[in-house]
TrEMBL record, chain A:
The chain crosses the membrane at residues 7-27, 33-53, 60-79, 85-107, 114-131, 174-192, 219-239, 259-285, 297-316. It is a multi-pass membrane protein. Keywords: Cell membrane, Membrane, Transmembrane, Transmembrane helix. Pfam families: BPD_transp_2 (PF02653). This is Branched-chain amino acid ABC transporter permease. GO terms for molecular function: branched-chain amino acid transmembrane transporter activity. Residues 335-354 are annotated as: Disordered. It comes from the Bacteria. PROSITE patterns: PROKAR_LIPOPROTEIN. GO terms for cellular component: plasma membrane. Its main location: membrane. It is found in: Cell membrane.
UniProtKB/TrEMBL annotation, chain B:
Pfam families: ABC_tran (PF00005). InterPro entries: AAA+_ATPase, ABC_AA/LPS_Transport, ABC_transporter-like_ATP-bd, P-loop_NTPase. The lineage of its organism: Bacteria, Pseudomonadati, Pseudomonadota, Alphaproteobacteria, Hyphomicrobiales. Residues 8-238 form the ABC transporter domain. PANTHER family: CONSERVED COMPONENT OF ABC TRANSPORTER FOR NATURAL AMINO ACIDS-RELATED (PTHR45772), HIGH-AFFINITY BRANCHED-CHAIN AMINO ACID TRANSPORT ATP-BINDING PROTEIN (PTHR45772:SF8). This is ATP-binding cassette domain-containing protein. It comes from Jiella pacifica.
């Protein structure tokens, strides 16, 4: 598929997504809308890992560390300021700084990919334990109590920028969450077309060659990692806005593993894939949760096995290849019939000439 | 009068892997615009030598100076920025990307958007892969991937070019073309070429350095080296002695 076809497909996808976000409140009831808001905030998290894993080649087993830090940073700041505007900023900056510090040691210490997975997994476990043991008044930041395993209830949700009295309704929250998801997708797409994005992909492809051409793979990977952390943090803020609550289970390993499943099913190496995988699986799990005959984890496991065996590339790349193959066949046929016509014309010409 | 320092100079360069001495006290010097061939049997330490020059390995002992600037133990990307480019023995390319993207990545680092585009077009012309510019490199033949890698090295416009077995896996015609390109590059830049193909060496070489068991055994002009009995004994025996 040529570059222009790809680009027009991406633009079309963004337009469709914009329309879906815009009209959703007309068709979905409040409960469904809240559910989709949750899915969209999770999709931001999935997108962050899909970016650093699929385009930076960094398999982070603990992307929830940044998601959770973003959520806690938002909650603490929102309670202290009473305004969500600076809190959202905190939710992006705190995990980004944490990713910067962690990434510096990992990438400049030349720690190999497998250990990166182990380290990020461990960091998530540590954060879970740290936040789990913050019960009591001594663990208070400003006026915000961290609350230990009970978490932080009644966190102020999003309000209009710099106007804490104008709290967003669930419909508005849906627009904000869906809009943020689309904006982050578009931002990452633009980044991947820029010089930095192309170099990041080159580093993923072959670190040695990139270094021998004068690019420092450590710096490139570090910035990809930091950006992934910032996006995951934004997802955390959107998540807290959905439930007005954050607890230490946000660092649970099951969620970390689930994001990886979303990406495997949606398609690694794409940006749409993680979003599609996230929405599909979460919708499925919530549907299964509403009945009693199947256990949702069992179904999730079965789906993963089916995908690993039959569609190892994931949904989006498989569909893309199918469309590309179909496109190729159609254009071939068109060319063939085109040739046929021209042959007929040349054959017919002498008759007309006579 | 101050003497012009050599382009590249190594002093007592040594690389140990456990008990194995891959390079043992190598004193090597290369002048500006010089073309040098390195030969030696497998395991003589040529590739290890190249890896130390490009920062892929940190020498156990000794120094490397590039235009009188110490580079031993520096990271690869810094050395590349100083102007040393390398085509490695096994093609080291971006397999999942197109030919054009590979060349562009090499060209764009130190130049503007338009200049990079121009360099890419020139290099594609030079390595004769213009028709395959959009092809994914991983799907090309070994010889074509060699060309892509040579293309990335050319596009980065380094001061010193290291070529590790550039003619391996190429057809006779391509080998000749490689020799031509090497002569062409040598008009403005210095090169060190590692090769096993003696016909190829004869085509391009002036001075040849022979590596044996991690040391420089001999350094002389190409005729003298090929006539030397020790060289024949360690390496060329069957082929040239006849």
């Amino acid at each position: 598929m040529s570059d222009t076809v790809k680009l027009s497909a991406q633009i079309a996808a963004v337009l469709v997504a914009c329309i879906v976000v815009a009209v959703m409140p007309l068709y979905a009831d409040l409960f469904q809308l809240m559910q989709f808001t949750l899915f969209a905030s999770m999709a931001v998290l999935a997108l962050s890992l899909g970016f650093i894993w699929g385009f930076g080649g960094i398999l982070c087993f603990g992307q929830t560390a940044f998601f959770g830090l973003g959520a806690y940073a938002y909650a603490v700041a929102a309670i202290n300021y009473g305004d969500s505007t600076p809190a959202i900023l905190c939710a992006v900056i705190v995990p980004a700084l944490f990713a910067l510090a962690l990434g510096y040691f990992v990438f400049y210490g030349r720690i190999s990919d497998v250990y990166l997975g182990v380290i990020t997994l461990t960091v998530t476990l540590i954060l879970f334990n740290v936040f789990n043991s913050t019960a009591g008044d001594e663990y208070t930041i400003g006026t915000a109590r961290l609350g230990g395993f009970n978490g932080m209830p009644a966190v102020p949700t999003f309000n209009m920028p710099f106007d804490p009295t104008a709290i967003l309704y669930p419909e508005d929250s849906w627009y904000v969450t869906g809009g943020a998801l689309i904006a982050i997708y578009v931002g990452l797409r633009l980044l991947l077309r820029s010089r930095f994005g192309r170099v990041a992909i080159a580093v993923r492809e072959n670190e040695t060659r990139a270094a021998l051409l004068g690019y420092d793979p450590r710096v490139v990977k570090l910035w990809v990692f930091v950006l992934g952390g910032a996006i995951a943090g934004m997802g955390g803020a959107l998540y807290v806005n959905w439930g007005a609550f954050v607890g230490p289970t946000i660092f649970a390993l099951s969620l970390s593993a689930e994001i990886i499943i979303w990406i495997c099913i949606g398609g690694l190496g794409t940006l749409i894939g993680p979003i599609v995988g996230c929405f599909l699986i979460q919708y499925l799990v919530s549907q299964i949760g509403s009945q009693q005959s199947f256990n949702s984890n069992l179904v999730l496991g079965a789906i993963l096995i089916v995908f690993v065996l039959l569609l190892p590339q994931g949904l989006v790349p498989t569909l893309r290849n199918l469309v590309a193959a179909g496109w190729y066949r159609v254009s071939e046929r068109r060319r063939e019939t085109g040739h046929g016509q021209s042959r007929q014309m040349t054959a017919g010409q002498p008759v007309g000439a006579e | 009068m101050t003497k012009i320092p050599p382009l590249l100079e190594t002093r007592n360069l040594t690389m140990r892997f456990g008990g194995v001495l891959a390079n043992d006290g190598v004193n090597f010097s290369l002048g500006e615009m010089e073309l040098r061939c390195l030969i030696g049997p497998n395991g003589a330490g040529k590739s290890t030598f190249f890896k130390m020059l490009t920062g892929q390995l940190t020498p156990s002992e000794g120094t490397i100076r590039f235009r009188d600037h110490p580079i031993d133990g520096h990271p690869s990307h810094e050395i590349a920025r100083l102007g040393i480019g390398i085509k490695t023995q096994i093609p080291n390319v971006f397999n999942g990307l197109s030919v054009r993207e590979n060349i562009w990545l090499a060209a764009q680092r130190k130049t503007t958007r338009n200049a990079a585009r121009q360099i890419v077009d020139e290099v594609l012309e030079r390595i004769m892969l213009k028709d395959l510019a959009g092809a994914i490199v991983g799907q090309l033949s070994h010889g074509q991937r060699q060309w892509v890698e040579i293309g990335t090295v050319l596009a980065a416009e380094p001061e010193l070019i290291l070529l590790d077995e550039p003619a391996a896996g190429m057809t006779d015609e391509e080998t000749e073309r490689t020799a031509e390109i090497i002569h062409e590059i040598n008009k403005t830049r210095a090169l060190i070429v590692v090769e096993h193909d003696m016909e190829f060496i004869k085509m391009i070489a002036k001075t040849v350095t022979v590596f044996h068991q991690g040391r420089i055994m001999l350094e002389d002009n190409v005729e003298a080296v090929l006539a030397d009995s020790r060289v024949r004994d360690v390496y060329l025996g069957k082929k040239v002695a006849a």
